[in-house]
């Protein structure tokens, strides 16, 4: 049983995605309670609302009034529920897996929702297309976690995109081809902020971007891979609108509107052309305003007068930035947008005056008036977000046709290499190549958390495996639990294998950065963050290491090196599994030489 239900602030069902067994289970409960007449009757939103309303209402009371919301429920027969909050919506994830796995799936589902909707979650303006896209992405991600293809499982488990290793000459040819594609987009369509990605069998071959484009975050790469896989059974050309994140250290990151054009080429190749649109300062300020508004709503419901004023000051700052960006970037507004801006400005001015009066006297009646005016202000903000994007020069149908033509040009240029790339993707890295230099090494996984890419030997399906899959998955979960306690190096062994895990930081020149910050003490006393990463949660349970639920490693680098500017610190992980006879000293030495060997093979500038 597995499913996701999302409730809005009025406790109505905004979204549901339930598999067959869970639907049957809920239907049986509904029939027992008299909510459904007979078996086979459709399970509609009203039935879900009546069954889950007591839990959701209790959850909201615990969260809003006591700031102590439920993180999860554990029920009989391994049936578990986990909760999350995002922009006023309550996410309920249901499944028969461990709580930690369910919470990670919930965090990923919330992140995918942001990617599909931006800040106007489940808005009527988005229509059924975005909802269908979200469902496809969630189903794709979760199906990859349980499928038999271990190589695919490995990538989704670690939340990193596998890098395809090719020789320098072919690499240069691919990059030149993609650069020519971006230049053509600039000259023919006037597109200044674009990216081009080439995937082969869900492995990254190359990523090229223009200078004006916002660099992609590790989560963006993985989302694009999920998107490509989710839409693989559909037509060869497809264009969808999404909202990427961008690197966290950029001031305009968080909500980057993009048109993604997918083209399926010869030999399992997928070309993704990304066109950023919208005015980034405006989109970013509206994005931040949404999250501050939710913070204010929570603070007011908790009756925390001390926290309300700084929250209001943040809101005032972001609204001011939004209005300034509107004046600067949308000088020629169409009628609908101009009318929306006037309404938004009027509602904000009214709300601002009420807050000013409240902070003079702190009268409860004024706070009630503010709370009654906030929903209308939020609706105007949603409308402003939608219309400001609609007024931008988004790719027209003619330009989309040009993207299809550009993809055909790329396919023709790479046609002679297509079969080689397909074969190479099927067997990217073999552990056999490392056995002579690293005796006793069974498997390794090397991840650049700053780029979101990984390298690991292929786990070949249908052949006898020295390393059981369960051992590998347990290793990852085991080390994550220690990482959440501040341990960046972990070693242990069982009767068969010796396991080792290393996390370290480097500067841009490849030099090792040593953290003087006591992570263990910090994690012990405060926990790492509060699970909010980019607004993805509202509970104080420790966040899960990864890149989709939150950019865990970026925040970890910022915590360890607060004086270094964002993007100046690279984070790496290495998992190694040796035969049990290998000593700890040998495993450490192997890890050092293995990283150096991989760097020589891959090249510093490409991983």
TrEMBL record:
The lineage of its organism: Eukaryota, Metazoa, Ecdysozoa, Arthropoda, Hexapoda. Residues 4-142 form the FUZ/MON1/HPS1 first Longin domain. Residues 192-292 form the FUZ/MON1/HPS1 second Longin domain. InterPro entries: FUZ/MON1/HPS1_longin_1 (IPR043972), FUZ/MON1/HPS1_longin_2 (IPR043971), FUZ/MON1/HPS1_longin_3 (IPR043970), HPS1 (IPR026053). One of its GO terms (biological process) is vesicle-mediated transport. This is Hermansky-Pudlak syndrome 1 protein homolog. GO terms for cellular component: BLOC-3 complex. It holds the Pfam family Fuz_longin_3. GO terms for molecular function: guanyl-nucleotide exchange factor activity. Residues 440-599 form the FUZ/MON1/HPS1 third Longin domain.
């Amino acid at each position: 049983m597995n499913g996701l239900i999302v409730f809005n602030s009025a406790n109505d069902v905004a979204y549901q995605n339930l598999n067959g067994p869970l639907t049957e289970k809920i239907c049986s409960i509904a029939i027992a309670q008299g909510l459904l007449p007979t078996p086979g009757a459709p399970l509609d939103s009203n039935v879900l609302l009546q069954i889950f309303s007591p839990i959701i209402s209790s959850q909201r009371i615990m969260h809003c009034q006591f700031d102590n919301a439920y993180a999860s429920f554990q029920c009989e027969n391994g049936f578990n529920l986990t909760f999350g909050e995002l922009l006023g919506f309550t996410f309920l994830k249901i499944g028969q897996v461990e709580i930690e796995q369910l919470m990670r799936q919930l965090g990923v589902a919330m992140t995918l929702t942001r990617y599909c909707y931006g800040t106007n979650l489940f808005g009527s303006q988005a229509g059924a297309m975005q909802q269908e896209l979200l469902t496809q992405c969630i189903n794709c991600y979760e199906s990859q976690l349980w499928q038999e293809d271990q190589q695919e499982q490995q990538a989704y488990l670690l939340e990193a995109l596998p890098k395809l290793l090719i020789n320098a000459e072919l690499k240069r040819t691919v990059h030149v081809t993609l650069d020519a594609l971006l230049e053509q987009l600039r000259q023919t369509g006037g597109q200044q902020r674009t990216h081009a990605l080439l995937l082969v069998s869900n492995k990254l071959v190359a990523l090229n971007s223009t200078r004006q484009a916002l660099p992609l975050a590790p989560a963006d790469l993985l989302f694009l891979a999920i998107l490509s896989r989710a839409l693989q059974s559909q037509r060869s050309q497809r264009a969808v609108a999404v909202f990427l994140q961008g690197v966290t250290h950029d001031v305009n990151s968080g909500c980057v509107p993009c048109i993604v054009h997918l083209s399926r080429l010869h030999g399992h190749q997928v070309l993704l052309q990304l066109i950023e649109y919208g005015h980034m300062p405006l989109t970013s300020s509206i994005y931040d305003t949404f999250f501050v508004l939710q913070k204010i709503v929570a603070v007011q419901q908790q009756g925390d007068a001390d926290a309300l004023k700084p929250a209001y000051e943040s809101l005032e700052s972001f609204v001011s930035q939004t209005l300034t960006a509107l004046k600067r970037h949308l000088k020629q507004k169409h009628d609908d947008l101009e009318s929306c801006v006037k309404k938004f400005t009027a509602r904000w001015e009214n709300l601002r005056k009420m807050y000013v009066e409240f902070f003079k006297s702190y009268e409860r009646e004024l706070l009630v008036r503010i709370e009654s005016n906030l929903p209308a202000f939020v609706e105007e903000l949603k409308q402003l977000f939608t219309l400001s994007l609609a007024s931008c020069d988004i790719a027209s149908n003619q330009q989309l046709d040009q993207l299809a033509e550009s993809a055909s040009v790329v396919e023709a240029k790479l046609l002679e290499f297509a079969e080689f790339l397909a074969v190479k993707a099927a067997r990217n890295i073999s552990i056999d190549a490392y056995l002579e230099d690293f005796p006793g090494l069974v498997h390794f996984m090397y991840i650049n958390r700053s780029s979101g890419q990984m390298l690991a030997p292929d786990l070949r399906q249908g052949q006898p495996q020295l390393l059981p899959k369960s051992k590998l998955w347990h290793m990852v979960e085991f080390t994550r639990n220690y990482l959440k306690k501040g341990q960046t190096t972990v070693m242990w062994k069982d009767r068969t294998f010796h396991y080792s895990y290393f996390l370290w930081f480097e500067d841009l020149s490849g030099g090792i950065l040593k953290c003087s910050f006591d992570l263990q003490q910090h994690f012990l006393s405060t926990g790492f963050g509060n699970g909010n990463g980019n607004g993805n949660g509202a509970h104080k349970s420790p966040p899960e290491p990864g890149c989709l639920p939150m950019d865990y490693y970026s925040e970890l680098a910022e915590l360890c090196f607060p004086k270094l500017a964002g993007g100046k610190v690279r984070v790496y992980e290495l998992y190694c599994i040796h035969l049990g006879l290998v000593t700890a000293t040998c495993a450490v030495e192997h890890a050092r030489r293995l990283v150096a060997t991989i760097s020589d093979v891959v090249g510093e500038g490409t991983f």
